[in-house]
């Protein structure tokens, strides 16, 4: 096997692995359908294209609504840093395809660097090899290399940032780490607490006398330089346009305006339902199901399938059925515009009333049970839901086999990776602080999304996945060591 330091060998091997996975995804999802697009543009993709084109044309990060371009702070412009320059020089199709290629290239680089992180923190060649191949063949993250969404760039930027941070040999490495972390924050601001954690780690190194105070000051300044400048520009821009102090974004819903959909999402969230309308296993599809998944069977067939605690004195299953019918009118073109607007107003008011009723009558369920109900939904699913547009029963033998393998890989990464929690508790004194860092990153994501944000779209797990891959591969190596020489671990 090639030396770990043989960068070009590992990058080319990562490219080979990524290419094989991507070709399978393209084949299985029928992406080459003659439109010239090599990836997928759905979900939030049109929003990213819209703001990027406005930056390219008008040099304004904003949205056009009713013919008027208005500044926007529902998201930060992390994705636009790439997509806007491409939109300036190329047509929309070419800009998207070039974005896909850049995502694949960065994903390839991050695969190698993740394995280097594993080797640096758990100094074992086997851990490096296991991490490289386990993460290299994964499709859970690679799937998003083919999307115009922030996930691919976000996870690659964070891995690159963490690599420079954890293995820094000079202040320029900290500047690079801070720059890539800033980019990641611009795409996913909710990782700011991880930025705080990394700064605390640097202070810890000072107290352990690894850094002198002058060195600590220089390192912290270098690490936070790019973020500090970026935040100063962003906050100033937002104050000029909105007259408010907005350090990251206006809200957690990407600036979604008050109305039926926001009210529906927050109502479903309030009692611990999954608000993802393109997941057939979610409660959201009882109210609204996206057309592209109409062929997939729903987990919940009627409102009566919901847990009894969901209902209050203000509403029952029949009430929600009426809400669904009113909601349908808002999207039905056979009704006049005024009728649809009235239906929107009516359904929004009902959903707000029902949500408030649930909070007032069942606070324990709202604050405790509901988020805990979302936790297993976030973690325990097929792990390979994205591999095919067909129900499992309609897939051929090859497709079923690949799906089962990738489901197994997901659960290996999740369960074996999380087993490090118990290992670290049992061996508390032997666990290095940088090893705790590797564990705290996925634990933060696992706690944040279902328990705090109440958002359990599976793609939000994407940052936890690579670091759980490292931990899973480390635990695998420990198991192999134990079975080959049980006394070695006992000693």
From TrEMBL:
Species this chain originates from: Thermoflexibacter ruber
Q: Which residues cross the membrane?
A: 7-27, 95-115, 127-146, 152-168, 180-207, 213-235, 408-426, 432-453, 460-483
Cell cycle is among the record's keywords:
no
Keywords of the record, alphabetical order, are:
Membrane, Transmembrane, Transmembrane helix
The name this protein carries in UniProt is Dolichyl-phosphate-mannose-protein mannosyltransferase
